[in-house]
Each structure stands twice: as C-alpha cells, then as structure tokens.
Amino acid sequence: MKIGTRHRRQERIDRGIKVRTDGLYALMSWRELSYLVAPRLLLIGGLLLLPLVVPGMYWQRVISIVCIYALLALSFDFLAHYVGLVSLGGAFFVGVGGYLTALLNTELGASPLVAIPTAAILGGVISTILLLPCLPLRGVYFAIVTLMYPLFLARVIEALNILGGTDGIMGIDSFPYVWLEQYGIIIMLLLILFGLRRLVNTDLGLVMRAVKDNDQAVKASGMNITHYKALAVFIASSVGCLAGAYLVHTYMWAGISIFALDFSILPIAATVIGGGGTLVGPVLGCLILVPISELLRDFGTLRIVFYSLILLGFIVFRSEGLMIYGQRKYHQFERWTDI
Amino acid sequence: MTDTPILQVNGVTKTFGGIIALNNVSFEVNEGEILGIIGPNGSGKTTVVNCITGFVKASAGKVRFRGKDITTMPPHKIADMGVLRTFQIMRPYFSLPAYKNLVIPLCSPRARRTGGWRGGGKLGDRNTVSIDILEEIGFERDSYVPYKTTSSLPTGYLKRLELARCLALKPDLILCDEVFSGLSMSEIASMVPLIERLQMDGITLIMIEHRLRELFQVANRVMVLNFGEKLVEGSAEKVMADARVREAYFGSEVAEEVMNHA
Fold first, then answer.
1. pTM, two decimal places
2. Per the domain annotation, does A210 fall within a domain?
C-alpha cells in the first residue's frame, strides 16, 4: 500500500507473551499463566454464571436452548472442519435422539438421567448405521443424505401414524431438579467442547484431519478411511442425539417438529459467525444467534428479515468468523513497516 | 530369498471406457531387486502402479503378492500387506507440520503390528518415531524443517515425505511413481544413495522414472511400456539397444536415423 511517497505494508507478528507461553515456561509467571487461562476461564465462568444473571425463567430456558444448539454446532464443526464431512443432519440427530429418549422414558420408564445418555449412545449407533452407505463416497452425498433423513423420517411417522403420529409422544418426564436441568446441559456442553478440542489433537484426531486433507494418502497408508469416518460420525451424531434428547425432556414432548430444518441450518449459521474449525467459535455463534432470534420475536414476521440482515452483516464484514478474528487480535499485533 | 517372485503380474488389462490403458501386461519382480518401468507419456506406467496397489481395479488379469491374489483387494488392505506406493503428484497432509504427516501412517494397523516403531502407547511416542524416520530419509533432525508446515516445504522434501510415509509402514515392496521428477540435479544425486540403501535393507522396489541415467544406476532390470503394452524387459543395455524402444521414445523416423548413425 502506498501512503504519501513511502511504500508501506502491514505486518502481523506474534506477541512475545504468545511465543513464551507456547512452551512449558508458561508456569513461570502469573501473567503468562493468566494469558493462557483467562480466555478459557472467561468462557467457563461466563457460561456457569449466565443462568444466575439473566432475568427470569424465560431467559434461563433460552440459555438451555443456546446450549442445545451449541452442541449441534459443535457436531457440525467437528465433522465439517476436522473430518471433511459436511453434515446437514442436525435435525436428523435431534429427531433420532429425541424420539429414542421419549420411547425409553414413556415405554420403559427410564428416568431422564438414564434415558438421555442411553439415547445419545444408541442414537449415535443408529445414525451411524443409517449413514454408513454414503461414507465411502467423497463429495456432496453425505450432505444430501443427512438432509434427506429427517424429511423422510418425519413423513414416515406421519403416514404410518407410529410413535404418536402427528400428535407426538406426550407425558415425558421432566428433570427431577430445576438446577439440574439448567446446569446439566451447560456442563455437558463444556465437557464436550473441551473433549473434542482434545480429541482433534490426539493421534486419532490427526488421522481424522488427514482423511479430510487427503483421503488417498490415508488409504495408501493401509488405513480404512470408512472406519475412521464412521467413528467420527458416531461421535458427532452422539453429540447431536444428546442435544435432541435434552430438548425433548426440556419440552416434555417429542413430535415430528423436532425434525425441523432449523436444527440443521442454525448451527451452520452459528459456525459461520463464530469461525469454523475453532470449535469454540460455533458455541460463541449460538450464544449470539439464539438470543437475537428470541429478541426479534417482537417484530413478528419481520423477524426473519432482521435475522437475515444480521447474518449478512457478519458474512460481509467478518467472514472469517469472530473467534478466528479474536484469536488473531489476542495472539498477534499488527504494525506498518516501510518496504 | 525364496524362489517365488514377490510380485507376479499376469496379463493385466485395464480399459477406461474405450481407451485401453494397459493391454495384457505381465511381469514378475523378485525379492530384493529394483525393477525400473519406463515408457513415454501416457504409456500406462502409473496405471500399472494403480492396478497393483488397488487404486484402480484391473479389467482382466491377476496380480499376486507372495503368491496371494490381491487383484480385487481394496487399497488399504494391499498397503496393509506391505505393498506401499508413492504418488507422482505428492499427496502430503498440507495443513500439518511435516513430522505429523508420519504420525498418521504410524497409526495404521500394519505399523502397530510390525511394532518395531513402537506405534502405540503414550502420546508423543509417534512424534519421536516420525522424527527418526524423517532423519533417515534426509530431514535434518535439529533443523526447523521437520517442524514446518508441510505446505511451505519445497518439492524435494515432499518427495522424501512420500517415501517416508511408505517407510513408516515397514514395507516389503515400494512402488515409486517418479520420485526423481521435478527435482534438481543435486537433489536427485542425494536421492540415489537413499534408494540404494532401501534395497540393502531388503526392500523390493518398482520405480517408474523418466530420469533414465539415475534409474539405470540403481535398477537391476528395466521394463518398457508403450501404449499400454509391454515392449521389452531386461538389463538397461539390452533395453536401450532395442529398436522398438528407440522408436517409442524418439518416433520412428528419428529412430531410424539414430540407428543408421550408430
């Protein structure tokens, strides 16, 4: 860039403290320790304190919904940016998890504390088996099949009048304690967030990233890529089913509307806003998008217009995503230099 | 060494639609030798590699590795048996640091089974092993090169990385698809001893090459392909003296002229 007569360019340099804290030496001073810990504590503490500071039951419920969407967004981000499978299957996972926990609770009398984890694992297995045929393929097939299943299942339930038909399954138990309902999902979200972050940096996570980067080379290394994709889909769909199961117990009802495409689309929008590939970004995106969508309820049908404008603004002005932008500002400084 | 060849290719034919990429190609590779495959562009050299390693399925014919039919096996099973390949267009994991590229093959069932590389166990083990392999293949351990992001490495290192990926699996047979192409003369010169050492370690190699001088230095036998058919096979001198080979490389008119001058 030319300013006046001098040629200048902007350069980005890692902050000294970032370089110092890359190693073990971070433990040497409080300042460096807090450089590492503070952002994480802010997220953990913030999420834990949030239900205490918001006004009233209504907004506490919104926080639960934020966490449910955040789980779906995490599942999307993990599959899309670490395994290379673009999933439009949020609704599919929510539906499978939701109906499973509803059946476990109403038919077998399992308490929510048993039904939710069981539905998550069982739902993960069922989703993985249903998605298995398109895993060896590259390209758009996975996205299309995950988009198709929720539409398909909703019609099947409607047409055959099974699983409560259009009325849905009613009389599902709520959580035994209100605080458990609120903090259960928040703690679950934090555990899964940090768990996934750890997973993608293990050797297993590295293989999954390699499948995204270059599946031919993974095959040439004597590894079955379908096996690793299936494992990743199982992890992601279990997380999605967990979100669905939680949703059903929160609303005490499971119907075909839990196959709604909102559950597929909003997590993707949240990932775009928050910054894909960071795992924290999608959570942040949900923390912004879900409350905004609640606030916009006052506008009635105009809501979707404002909502779209906000999304558009993010995409035009911060297309890299908030978290990636934030990380850059946190770790690096920019300056102008002469060239 | 046993009498049965390590690899037997019997009448392999591959057609892509109406195009015959390989027509009834047969050859054998003995344990511990280096077989060079040469031929003009489009003669089907890479298709041979693809057929042997299962990346494309032969339309007809049989491929046997140590007497076992591997023609219809999926690529990862063939690699698991110890038949490894490099890609002509390098396929590293560009977003990872160079040494992390090797952690992935070290996670494979074969690497865990062959055990010498101590695949499993606590975190960090594989990282150490990958640095060891990289050092063996020509990355300097104490330099910053093995830790750089793969996308920033020059071609020479990427070619070595391809070979290193094979070595991580303790291969019995490596099919090198043009490891010398795109390298400078000095880079090739430093690769040749590497290939020789692989042979001394008891690894059988099939090398596809356009760099004939360097290939003839290392190869025990050479096979020539043209338009998907095997022209001739034998020692480097015999192959290069063959009129059909000259014709394939230089075109019939030039070949005649060369022959007349000779």
1. 0.89
2. yes
